[in-house]
Design brief:
By secondary structure, the chain is an all-alpha fold. The chain has one domain (about 1-450). The chain is about 75% helix and about 0% strand. The chain has 23 helices and 2 strands. It has helices spanning about 1-5, 15-30, 45-55, 65-75, 75-100, 100-110, 120-135, 135-155, 160-175, 180-190, 195-220, 240-250, 255-270, 275-290, 290-310, 310-320, 325-345, 350-365, 370-385, 390-400, 405-410, 415-430, 430-435, and strands spanning about 440-445, 450. A two-stranded antiparallel ribbon has the order 1-2. Strand 1 and strand 2 form a beta hairpin. The radius of gyration is 22 Å and the shape is globular.
Length: about 450
């Protein structure tokens, strides 16, 4: 109990070191004209340096004691669950893509878009594809070439079309059951994926509907130019739908992703797109693709436990308590914390991992339902990620457009992200909104939902 009562801002210095190194390296490289500057210095290395600082600062306790504290945080049940979900999600994404799932999903969406609704249609396709695959970057990479093919022919606004693709990708990344942001947000707040999805959906969906209406009105092409449709087989879309449905009905996420992996593999082998050896290789490739976020989460979990042990989280809460006047202002504060951390790191997953432990403590103090907290972290990191010109999503779009459009041209047209922030903040101040988005009340003593 003595450690629980400690209060020291110095315990948070390792987190500050991580952000300073990561942000500083990005700023320096950006000034030198390095492409994708904020993604050149490995986040894991920056976090490793932060770990060394944490050990050095608390050297009086002894390396063995510090390692025990660190290991407790790095290997606790929630962190280990998060790491395993990362690996399975990576494997599913790799296998499903290799058997043609992404191409089939894109072509299916393109085939049903009326030529007069191209801009709104691209937003919808991007939303579904990112929700299904859990990656905004992959969605942007798949859709930007298609969008570019019709922009000039149909007389569309290039910045508006690219904003529709980016916004849709962020919508899906925010809601997807297998997105690393969703995994990080739910595991750090100790909540179920389906509960976070439900809470998030009733804030994101209204914003998406308004966005679609605006895109229909202002994004109409001068000439009705239909998108070129490639071949597709609906069967190849089934693994994505299967994972989404099984997760929503409450099946254990480990089982859901395992079923998805084998469903995608079996379909791929049945169609002759992959062999059994390809299937095994893709699973391993998916694991490898998650190594960075895997190590980052583990190291951050250890530092968070050290910060808690040495009073850092208590100090933060004490300081924030002077600003927060209650539950509503605390939710606004969490939103700002998530957005500012993403602005500093230019990586929404990293921002959630860093903020997660602190957000959990703040939520308990102000009785904020952790399902709502998970949604806040995911929403506002995604919002900021879609509004910073040095974010990877914008840099990829600018690169694929070969200089025809800059991030600063696209950002004002990201209507969905602005609307999402508005609807989220409204939900903090309108009581009935929370009654709609949350079923039951969270019992902090039992650490679970108790039905009213």
């Amino acid at each position: 109990m003595e450690n629980q009562k400690k209060s020291s801002g110095l315990a948070l210095v390792p987190f500050a070191v991580f952000i300073i190194i990561y942000l500083g390296a990005g700023i320096i490289l950006q000034s030198k004209g390095v492409e994708m500057a904020f993604y050149q210095f490995p986040a894991v290395v920056a976090m490793f340096i932060a770990v060394l600082v944490a050990f050095a600062m608390n050297y009086k306790a002894g390396i063995n004691t510090n390692f025990s504290i660190f290991a407790k945080g790095a290997a606790n049940e929630d962190v280990m669950a998060m790491l395993m979900i990362y690996l399975l999600a990576g494997a599913f994404s790799a296998v499903a893509k290799s058997m043609g799932g992404v191409d089939a999903t894109v072509n299916l969406g393109v085939s049903i878009i009326p030529a007069s609704l191209l801009t709104a249609g691209l937003f919808i396709i991007a939303s579904f594809l990112a929700t299904a695959t859990g990656t905004s970057m992959g969605t942007i990479g798949a859709l930007v070439p298609i969008a570019l093919g019709v922009v000039d022919k149909a007389g569309l606004s290039l910045p508006l079309v690219m904003a529709a693709v980016v916004s849709g990708a962020m919508f899906g990344d925010n809601l997807s059951m297998i997105s690393d942001t969703t995994i990080a947000a739910t595991r750090t707040q100790h909540v179920e994926l389906k509960d976070k999805f439900r809470t998030n959906f009733w804030i994101s969906f209204p914003a998406a509907i308004v966005t679609i209406i605006l895109l229909v009105i202002f994004g109409r092409p001068e000439t009705a130019q239909a998108l070129e449709v490639g071949g597709f087989d609906f069967v190849k879309v089934i693994p994505y739908l299967l994972v989404l449905v099984l997760a929503l009905i409450g099946m254990n996420v480990f089982l859901v992703l395992t079923i998805g992996i084998f469903a995608a593999g079996i379909i791929g082998m049945a169609y002759g797109d992959i062999t059994f050896m390809d299937f095994a290789g893709n699973i391993w490739a998916g694991f490898q693709g998650m190594i960075e976020v895997f190590l980052l989460s583990m190291l951050c979990g250890g530092i968070a436990e050290m910060a808690k042990h040495y009073g850092g989280l208590n100090w933060l809460i004490e300081k924030l308590s002077k600003t927060f006047k209650g539950k509503k202002s605390a939710q606004v504060g969490l939103s700002a914390l998530a957005a500012l951390t993403d602005m500093a790191t230019a990586n929404n997953t990293v921002a959630i991992i860093v903020d997660g432990p602190m957000a959990r403590e703040i939520s308990e103090k102000y009785d904020i339902d952790p399902r709502k907290t998970a949604s806040i972290l995911d929403m506002f990191t995604c919002i900021m990620q879609g509004l910073i010109p040095y974010g990877a999503q914008f840099l990829v779009v600018a690169s694929m457009c070969e200089g025809r459009v800059s991030p600063l041209d696209i950002i004002p047209n990201n209507w969905y992200l602005f609307l999402l922030a508005i609807f989220a903040i409204i939900s903090y101040f309108v009581p009935w909104y929370e009654n709609i988005t949350l079923k039951g009340k969270w019992d902090w003593k039992e650490n679970k939902v108790v039905n009213n």
